[in-house]
Write a structure and sequence with these properties.
Chain lengths: ~450, ~475
């Protein structure tokens, strides 16, 4: 069987079984003494295959469902979740959640968003693809990707495998201000992780490449992904350490994305009101050069982070986080917004089972005009970073020290691969020291950045 | 507990379980298992002196797995009807390409793990929310009393109560109850424009009383406050290759990242580990002996049995510098023809079994810890760390110090800002020249991530001297 392709609507009329369940649970919460409540119900299915050296290594298939409840008893609140939807179990959960809420203290700021802030429009953001790939088709796609990697260079003699995952899900959110919303989404991803062996030293290197999309037909070809994975792996062979010094550092798309992820964490309302972000009190102040602009766009059509409404039912929107170098907006939900005296930015994130928090939608740095090659060409002696490892970031101070790998740049050319080094600085300084941003913005996740160059950081090696 | 096997917790009969097992164990399947899990987790947290968040989460389900050669077929379901078990069994056996139809499996003997490393009565695990609230409020007061510069205290108390049942095609039918809890305190200190953070915590497979013994929870508060205040006066960390002395306990994360992951049997079967083919070879100096031990009472990384029903064990990984063994689960032990060590672990019924560490630590040596510090002219003394990470294939690992000091002329002097240490797994332990007699296990806060799955682990270390490692600070030269 091959895939069935249809363009599905991603926003469904909210009259299905899950919506009924949500409203039943809201009614139950009221009976148990909740003054306000909201409910999120998610269900989905996924199929994943892993191929290794041409054979199936793993095959996994599942359906799952989960319900999350948040109740308020006056100004006290508690959250809960379950995968058991039997009415007896749900009744017990509702009762226990209300009891839990009564055990914590009053929080004057707590509560649902005001009714007039809830989303009234729920646009179809084209997040859903009904294409169902059967097991053999997924196996075939993963095999092709791995084979392309193995065939592209004789030094690629081993593999950690190729993974093809597909998943489809549905989210329903309801609260007792009468909001009920529902949307569906899908995702298809293909990743390959080859291992190359240095024919002289016998030492090994691994790297990987991947693509992930909401629509199957927009996914890169298995061959393109496999070849890129091979290229990235082979070029690391023969990596060595370099001396300790301060030099310009160019971050490739992936590592620049991780840097942007650090910015995203620092503008989270929860980190800010707790005094746990180095960007506290910086709203309206200069963070970066005046051509540096960052958006968080919840309504990008087909975006991996898009959704018609946020985790509290507020409409998503396009927020300017950094406007021409000036910190213009934090990422907020109703609670963290109130703590900071600001309205929600529509960034409530609600992973079923956890207390609501905030998260990015599609968070990206606007591209410049230089190609990555041009940026590298402008560096006389410096580092091109393609890999970062470890957790050496202090979000309170912005102090940054991470393990890195990449290539040494000499006179505008990539010369040899480097490894077992660290790069260190302070995030606040690093953002203000960004000199150039590339033109190569590509979304492979919810956070994306073009290549960028930081004027100077400490590289520690020999 | 009335019965050996917690069938009642899952509302299934032995007949249903055996029938599903027979359905998945078709001709070409080497091994099959069913893993039933029921887990209740609760969290209460405090910030701004208010205990204002409480969550409770309930999950229940079954994972069904079949292996044939190197292939694994897997399915899971959060419904436990006969029909769901059959569907999962049919998916899991898909990899074997065998004709369908049920095949009888040996009737397993009901058993219970031979020992109980964490005999926490349910009542102890299920402590009243009000008691947790009281404890968190006292933590807040204690941390603020430590120093007026402590401006915010965040604390969370998490508990998990997991009931598992494993039925396998090799004749095991066994159950376990696995309590787990953790108390974590984070303080933010502020002095002028300078702001710093300090964290401390602990836990294990223990009851609520553990935290009250000797006012342990108040010590967590004081430690978190002390570290935050200390870091207010931290200077820039050095950059480059220098000698490093690691303190005992949690710095054992070095072992977890530098060698532990590299010795997990899956990477070695696939020959993607920097440690592949090094069995019997020297990978550390002869003062280093390292074990993985899942049998320590009450510890966060301990288990009566692993998630395949195998009793956990103490496994020699490195003996006086020589690589002696790998960490295995059933699939990899069978394919490699090496001993089964009881390290087959999974995050939940929704995840596949992988060979994972339990409590990994270095045995005590003979040096006096003070002499180790005295031996260093200029270096770093690191006593606490945040997380770490490793690239299995090239062996490069990092771990990031959160409390560290300069050593100048054999004396511990100024505190330094957090910095990442980076090294190469197969080489770093050959540079360990002194091992203290002060082995310490960590406080019980470790969580290890692999292939997206998190499992609780422990680490331990005596004070050790590493002659050279790259320290990633900002102060070159």
């Amino acid at each position: 069987m091959s895939e069935v392709r249809e363009s599905g609507r991603s926003v469904q009329p909210a009259n299905g079984h899950l919506a009924q369940l949500a409203s039943d649970v809201l009614a139950m919460a009221k009976q148990h003494g909740a003054t306000e409540a909201d409910v999120v119900v998610a269900d989905g299915e996924n199929l994943s295959v892993q191929i290794r050296l041409g054979s199936v290594d793993r095959l996994s298939k599942a359906r799952e469902k989960r319900l999350g409840l948040r109740v308020f008893v006056g100004k006290r609140s508690a959250t809960s979740s379950t995968s058991d939807f039997s009415s007896e179990s749900l009744r017990r959960l509702v009762s226990e959640t209300c009891t839990l809420a009564k055990a914590v203290v009053e929080d004057p700021v707590s509560g649902l968003p005001a009714a007039d802030q809830l989303a009234t429009d729920q646009p179809d953001l084209d997040l859903y693809d009904e294409t169902r790939l059967d097991t053999d088709r997924q196996i075939d796609l993963a095999k092709r990707a791995e084979a392309a990697a193995l065939a592209s260079d004789a030094r690629i003699t081993n593999s950690e495998g190729a993974d093809f995952d597909s998943s489809w899900g549905r989210v329903v959110l309801g609260n007792n201000h009468g909001f009920i919303g529902e949307y569906r989404s899908s995702s298809y991803s293909l990743a390959v992780s080859p291992v190359a062996v240095d024919p002289v030293s016998g030492s090994m290197q691994r790297d990987a490449w991947y693509d992930v999309r909401r629509k199957f037909h927009t996914l890169d070809t298995p061959e393109a992904i496999g070849r890129e994975a091979a290229k990235r792996t082979v070029r690391r062979l023969g990596a060595r350490k370099v001396g300790t010094k301060r030099v310009p550092v160019v971050f490739d798309q992936e590592t620049a994305g991780s840097l942007l992820g650090n910015l995203c964490s620092a503008v989270s309302g929860y980190a800010l009101y707790k005094g746990a972000s180095f960007l506290g009190g910086q709203l309206g102040k200069r963070l970066a050069p005046d051509w540096f602009t960052v958006y968080d766009d919840g309504r990008m059509v087909g975006g991996l982070g898009s959704r018609p409404f946020d985790g509290e039912g507020l409409p998503t929107r396009k927020n300017t986080v950094v406007d021409n170098g000036v910190l213009a907006s934090y990422l907020l939900d109703t609670y963290s917004g109130k703590k900071l005296g600001l309205p929600s930015s529509g960034n409530a994130s609600r992973s079923v089972g956890e207390s609501p928090s905030v998260g990015p939608t599609n968070f990206y740095l606007t591209p410049g005009t230089c190609s990555a090659e041009d940026i590298i060409r402008g560096v006389k002696d410096g580092l091109y970073v393609t890999e970062l490892i470890g957790f050496g970031i202090n979000m309170v101070t912005g102090d940054y020290s991470r393990g890195a790998g990449g290539f040494w740049i000499e006179n505008g050319e990539l010369t040899y691969p480097v490894e077992e080094i660290t790069i260190a600085g302070n995030l606040k300084q690093m953002f203000s020291d960004i000199e150039i941003v590339g033109s190569d913005l590509v979304f492979r996740g919810r956070i994306a950045s073009p290549t960028l160059k930081i004027a100077e950081m400490t590289v520690a090696g020999n | 507990m009335g019965q050996l096997i917690p069938l009642d917790s899952f509302g299934v009969t032995e007949h249903d379980v055996l029938e599903a097992l027979g359905r998945v164990k078709v001709r070409d399947v080497d091994y099959a298992d069913l893993y039933f899990e029921s887990c209740v987790s609760e969290s209460v947290s405090m910030e701004e002196s208010l205990v204002k968040r409480a969550t409770k989460s309930i999950s229940q389900g079954v994972g069904v797995r079949a292996t044939a050669g190197e292939k694994t077929g897997f399915a899971y379901s959060d419904d436990l009807t006969r029909h769901d078990l059959e569907l999962a069994a049919d998916t899991a056996r898909y990899i074997a390409n065998s004709p369908g139809g049920s095949q009888p499996v040996p009737v397993p003997v009901h058993s219970r793990p031979a020992r109980d490393l964490y005999p926490v009565p349910h009542a102890q695990a299920d402590v009243a929310t009000a008691d947790r609230v009281t404890l968190l409020n006292r933590i807040d007061a204690e941390a603020r009393r430590y120093d007026p510069r402590i401006k915010n205290v965040m604390a969370s108390f998490n508990t998990e109560y997991k009931i598992v049942m494993v039925a396998t095609s090799d004749g095991t039918f066994i159950g376990d109850v696995q309590p787990l809890s953790r108390l974590q305190v984070t303080c933010i200190a502020e002095d002028g424009g300078n702001r710093q953070i300090g964290s401390f915590g602990g836990g294990g497979r223990i009851g609520f009383d553990f935290y009250r013994q000797g006012d342990r929870y108040l010590n967590y508060a004081k430690e978190a406050a002390r570290i935050a205040i200390l870091n207010l006066s931290a200077v820039e960390a050095p950059a480059g290759v220098i000698p490093v002395v690691l303190g005992g306990g949690w710095p054992g994360i070095l072992l977890h990242e530098a060698i532990g992951h590299g010795l997990e049997a899956d990477f070695n079967r696939k020959k993607t580990s920097a440690f592949s083919n090094l069995l019997g070879k020297r990978v550390a100096s002869d003062v280093c002996t390292i074990v993985d031990d899942g049998t320590l009472p009450d510890r966060r990384g301990s288990l009566n049995m692993d998630d395949e029903g195998t009793a956990t064990a103490r496994t020699m990984l490195i003996e006086k510098g020589i690589l002696r063994g790998y960490i295995t689960d059933k699939l990899n032990a069978r394919l490699l023809g090496i001993p089964l060590t009881g390290n087959g672990r999974r995050e939940s019924y929704q995840s596949l079994v992988l060979p994972r560490m339990t409590n990994t630590f270095m045995l005590a040596g003979e040096s006096n810890p003070e002499d180790i510090i005295k031996s260093v002219k200029r270096g770093l003394y690191a006593v606490s760390f945040g997380g770490g990470q490793v690239d299995i294939t090239n062996g490069k690992f990092v771990f990031s110090a959160s409390e560290a000091y300069l050593i100048e002329d054999g004396k511990v002097t100024k505190p330094v800002k957090g910095a990442t240490l980076i090294g190469s797994g197969p080489e770093i332990l050959t540079k360990v020249s002194m091992v203290g007699h002060d082995l310490k296990l960590d406080e019980g806060i470790g969580t290890c991530g692999k292939e997206g799955q998190s499992v609780p682990v422990g680490v331990g270390l005596p004070t050790i001297r590493i002659d050279e490692i790259t320290v990633g600070g900002t102060q070159a030269g």
